[in-house]
Amino acid sequence: MPQSPDRLDTTPPPELVAALRALASGTSSGQGAPSRADATEDTAKNVDLTFGFDGGGASVIIGTHVYLKVDFPCRISGWSIVADSAGSISFDLNSGAFAVFPTLTPMVGEGGTTPHTTASESGEGLVADLVGWTLTVGRASVLEAVVSANDDVIQVCSLSLRAKRLDL
Predict the structure, then answer these.
(1) Residue 68 to residues 48, 59, 134: CA-CA distances in angstroms?
(2) Which residues are within 8 A (CB) of 132 and not within 5 positions of it... i.e. 6 or more apart?
């Protein structure tokens, strides 16, 4: 004989209760999968430090530079360039403490490859491409990106350094 609606067992299964408690406490459940809180925290640590270059209707001139003050410690993990047209452009990178600005030192050492595009509208460098780089940026630092080469095609572009904050 079927149960009447007022006699239905509405107690949730114990495994559902355990899973909900694990989610609420921020612990991971299952085979070592990160909790949602862990994933959000990791995402919050990733930042892009972006330099914008605009030639004002003409090609970006070699020697053009942009400064960026960074108020948190971080570690560079890659770079990307996006340009308005296919071309070749390269950048030198310098850094230093804000307290001693304008004294800066090169971030890319001997044997390192600087951010660049080659006959393209975009370029990207990953961790493996950062050999010879100074990767750690201290709190209250100044970064400088300088156009070191441009084939007179690119008028507007951005250079972004991908970094992970070390203070979160």
Answers:
(1) 12, 22, 16
(2) 108, 109, 110, 111, 112, 113
Tokens 């156009």 map to which residue? Answer: 147
- Give per-residue pLDDT as tens, 62-103: 999 999 999 999 999 999 999 999 999 999 999 999 999 999
Q: How far apart are CA 150 and CA 65, in angstroms?
A: 13
Name the 3-class secondary structure at 16.
helix
CATH code for position 60: 2.60.120.260
Domain that includes residue 72, residue range: 48-165
Alpha carbon 115 to chain centroid distance? 14
Question: Tokens at residue 99, please?
Answer: 């307290």
Per residue in 18-39, pLDDT (tens digit) is: 665 666 655 444 444 444 555 5
Q: Same structural domain for residues 34 and 94?
A: no
152 and 102 co-located in one domain = yes
- Is 0.70 topped by the overall pTM? yes
